[in-house]
Amino acid sequence: MQPNFSSDFKIGILGGGQLGKMLAQAAQNWHMKTWVLDASRNFPAGGVCTFFKEGDFKDFDAVYQFGKQVDVLTIEIEHVNAEALRRLEKEGVKIHPIPAVLETIKDKGLQKQFYEKLRLPSASFDLFESGEEVLKAFRRGDLPFPFVQKSRTAGYDGRGVAVLRTEADLDKLLPQASVVEPLVDIEKELAVIVARNEKGEVKAFPAVEMRVNQQANLVEYLICPATVEASISRRAEELAKTTIQAYNLCGLLAVELFLTKDKQLLINEVAPRPHNSGHHTIDSCYTSQFEQHLRAILNLPLGSTKIKTPSVMVNLLGEEGRYGEARYRGLEACLAIDGVKFHLYGKTTTKPFRKMGHATILETDLEKAMEKARFVKNTLKVIS
What we know:
alpha+beta; Rossmann fold; Dna Ligase, domain 1; D-amino Acid Aminotransferase, Chain A, domain 1; nine-stranded antiparallel beta sheet; five-stranded parallel beta sheet; 27% helix
């Protein structure tokens, strides 16, 4: 990548959701043009990008034709047409993450085999071609409870995961090809956002702690820095650096980790793009994850990952039982609290547990930050 950029330089983004929106907003600070491909210009990125192309990012022709028009191509979601990306790569289009890495990561089975081959710590696993095969393994006595079944592909935002603890849960079995792991006895769930550019420079943001809504299988609160010993945070950050180097990936990699009761760190899964576990960086760090992703894919020096202030992020989810045009109740009361920063994604319709925005609470005392985060969660309601 040349150090000078013309006014015509185009950054292509496959996906126009909230991640695409926040990438485009970060690019605006440098007056860079962003081109976005997704189904509708009414999606979150449509109002902030330079050019929005309506099309299906899973379609070969749509991705191929779009990719030929930009200078560098990246993603906000893994489930894009990799065959088109491979052809574009052969024709000289710069793509990050590269298609070979994307194809490994988007298949959780290939991910697990990658960690096994490279001896990166992860839970033991078995691969099955169907839910029926999983059921047969259970009936043979080869698959004891409790275990977790994950769809090999297309899982996203809590979908494509089934936790089975007893025979009563067998009706939750997913029908598709899947990865099955024992249910790990964990103390905490952690995540590290790490970046790497083509020069090989690598920087990790401080480890964060994720507290999950078990009903929706989605992150509810995100605490930065994680409330663990400093040595564990350092180990988590070093493991994330090792992982992105193993993939030879340029851009961002979100590394989700299990901290077990005996203080071991296991890679749960990764995402080669900006991630929900890094949203707090917009307000609480010197460099946001979105700016860092742009720096990495453009082969620019990576920004500082230092924390300006501790923070707690809370995801703003659609209320259970609510479908239709989105309305926000309680926003005024939340905005009256010091240190609360809101990011609403601009999705016009809501449904149960849909990510509609997030709030980051900036506070030097994490306990006070959690109190404010709970208030926001209980007060701001996304209704229809």
